[in-house]
Structure formats: structure tokens, C-alpha cells
Amino acid sequence: MGVFIVFIHRAMRSLACTLSLAVAIGLTGAGAAHAAADPGDEDPSTTAGRWHTADERAQSRTEQSTPASPNRLFSAAAAPANDLLANATKVTSLPFDVSRQPFGGATLEADEPATCRTTDPDSTEYFTDGERSTWYSYTSPVAQTLSFGGGVDGRESMVIAYAAAAMSSLTRISCTETGFRDENHLQAKAGTTYLFQVTDDAYNAASTDTASLWIRASAPLSNLSPATASSVSVPSTVTGSIAKVDNNWYEPYYGSCDLPFVTMLGTRWYKYVATSTTGIRADFRESYYNADAVVWASDGSRPTTRIGCVAQGENDSSGPGSYDRANAYVDFAVEPGKTYFIQIGGWNFSVGDYVMKLSTYQLPLLTQMPTPKITGTAQVGSTLTVNPGTWDEGTTLTYQWMRGNGSYISGAKGTTYTVGAADVGTQITVAVSATKPGYSPARKTSAPTAVVAKGTLSGATPTITGTTKVGYTLTARAGTWAPAPVALSYQWARNGVAISGATSSTYKLTSSDKGKRITVKVTGTKTGYTTLAKTSAATATIG
Question: Which of 45, 63, 495, 506 would give a disulfide with 127, using CB separation of 3.0 to 4.6 Å?
């Protein structure tokens, strides 16, 4: 039965690959027609992958950390010269392209990883394992983009790229997989060695199996993450490409606005520091492929919240949503001094050359845009309240509380906020966002509160019960402490001197206590609150 399932799976994959090729031709043709105005672009638009079928989705699983069959032989052929990682074929120059390399006797070593991850534009991910492999290594002399592909000839196979490391420490950078990602990319650093593993699942393995691998180099790509985002100004026109970016989504920056099943695959980043309160339009309608984009608010260095997206149709169970080039732009409001990030990707699997035109857009501003004010005590446990002021009639207001340098507080979207332990040592602000049909969205941020202080615990004075004679046990009654829960600790003392080891809620009197008076100190602690200690009255003299 297992073989039958795999056979059906392979048949479904073959059909799906054929269908994806047809889709790719359609997308490429549309892009090529648009690209006619720029003959210098050799590949302005293409399709970087395909969707998994329902059958393939049903067989998906989580990633495993160890190979399924280390050292297993799948044919009687001799092991290839580069079967072991230690014997990886050294690639000395690029471009590199070999084919029909011996593969039939390939195996996996102990602890050898051989798993490729591919993703679909609906937040799903898939892992495929190899069961035999050969290895290649390349040391990049300069920073550059490496594009690669290949596989086991005539078989469902993968090429997986790693940064060189010991076998047990290898971490996948990117990979190709027959039908899903026939080509992929990585950003190479100067002087770093990279490993390329050709692998397959050994289905119907034969001693005559052969493999291929190609690697090409091109100029390095920058701004592949928020940390390396390129700065832009307004107005301006920015061009670039996502054709040579790993076309998979990665957390946490993969979702689109109000469309939880649409992901950003293979993205590049830009940042804009606003100089005034205005509306900005990021226009992608002249791009050479189906460009997608998300605009993020930030804390100055890190994207925090999506505030605008290209308006397109949502993916669903029947496949990709529609793409309307007329709607390929994002409008968003900005505040002076604030940093905004623009993440550019591709709609579904479309990749290619983008054109982003940044401009201010002509919408009237609201007349009344007051700065909100916060009332209340900046102390843990206290409640802060925002007074938004009076805005234009018909305006809808929303709220977002923030701490520190503008980091959004999850779930804090009401007119009040209860200060928590995580706020200690920071200042709290609240942003009021206003929308009104036909007007530019507006956003105003309050002045910060005082630095948040720790809260104050309250606790009862403890009492001691029990017989005050040697050999008897005394018990401390802590009483009520607030706000609950409060962690309590105990320290017993004789004539005011702490008794070593007497730190529980009970204490058995010893001969050392005879003629002395006993007290107990109860100390309350709670994260975000100052420590409070209460000491009981002394007992009668111990008899």
C-alpha cells in the first residue's frame, strides 16, 4: 500500500508540474509583453514555483532532524567519489555545470541532513527528504549571488545549499526541488565556503543513475532583510528585482494585510523616514511582473505592524487569487520622524523586475487632529487612560499603546491600558489613528508618560500561633497579600537574630530558644513590584 501511495503521489506531481509549466508560460508571456520597452532586461518576469496539490498537502509533515536511512545502499553500484561530505568535489570557478555524474551507489552518512523546505503562498510549508546524496563545495572569493539547480536525472530530486560546517552543524540555506523550485539562490559572503548536496528519495533507484549540478554567479543583492533595508526618499523611482531571491516565505514577515492566507515570497526591503505628516503612495503598476508589497510601521529599527498592502484578491482552497495591476499600489499616512519599511515581493510565485514610484498623494488632511493626552499614574498595576481630543465629525478612531521607543504592546488597542511588569523602566505612549472617507489617514502620538515605576505590594503583619515551649512547633500566619499572587518567604529570628535554616512557615523550638523571644519576618515578592517585608510581634519568652 505504501508503494501505491507514493506512485499516486508521483503521478500527481508529474501532472502538477505540467500544469505549473503552463501557468509559468502564461505569466512569463504577460511580463515579456510589458518588458518590450526595456530590451536590456533578459528575464524581467518569470514564475519561481508552483502550488502543492491537495494530495501532496495531505502527505505533508514537519521537518525531521536526522536522515531516514543513513548508510543504506540502494544499488550495487560503487559509491561516487563525492559520496562523502569529506570528499566533496571542489568547484574552483563559476559558471559551473556538470551532468551525468555517477550517482547510483550514493548513500547518506550518519547525521547527514537531507531535507528541502518549500512553501506555498498560503502560509503552508512542505518538507521532502533525500535518502542518498553527493557533495560539492565552492569557496566564494567575493560577495555575490549564487544561483543553482540540478538534481538526479529523470527523478524527483533536490539540491540543498549549506554554509560549510561539521555534519551535525549543517544548516540549510535554500534548496531546489523538482517541480517546486527548479532554481534557487543564496547570497554568498567573500571567503565563505558553501556546500551543495544533490539528493533524491531513491525511489526505483538504479546503479546507472546519474546527477547534474549547475552554479552561476551574479552581482550581490542587498536589502534582503529589515536590518539591511535601503533608504529611499519621496518623490523617487526605485528599480530592482526579486528574480534571484530565495522564493519561500520566512517568519515573521510573511503575511499581508487583512489577507491571512497570502504570503510574501522572496522579498527585498526599503525604509523611509518621514519629514512631515502626509500621505505616501508606493506605486508598482509599471513593474514587469505581478509585484506585491507590504508597508510596515516600526520602532525605528524593526518593522512592528502592517499599515498598508497592495490590494489584491485572496488565495483560497481553489488556488491563487486574482491580480489586478490597476490596484498595484499602496497608500499610507506618515508622521514626521517616524520610520516606515516597504517590503516588496511577488504575487503568488511571480518574480521579476519591479519599479516602485514613491510620491505624495493628493488627499485633503483632516481639519482637527489633536495630540492625545494620557492620564493616570505610570506605575505597575495602575490604569492609564487616553483622551483623544476632538477630531473632525465622521472620523473613526483606533488606538495603539506602545512602550519604549515605540514598540507596540500586543492587544493594547483600547482607550485604557493597565501598566504591566514588562513596562518597568520604560515610558508609555499611545497612538491615535483616524480615518475618514475621502481624507488622508492621520495618526497622532501622545507625549510619553514618566518612566514607569514598580508597583507597591500590600501585606498583613504576620502572626505566630503555637505553644511557646521547647519541642513544640510554631506556625506563621502570613495573612492577605495583594495584588495576588504574591510569592512569600519566611525567616524566623530569636531575640531579633535570624535563625540559620529557619525559612519555612513553621519552626520547631529548640533548647537554644529557651529564655528567648521568637519573631518571624514574611517577605513578599512579585515581578514588577517593590519587595515588601513584614515582621510579627515577638512571642512570649520560650519556656
Answer: 63
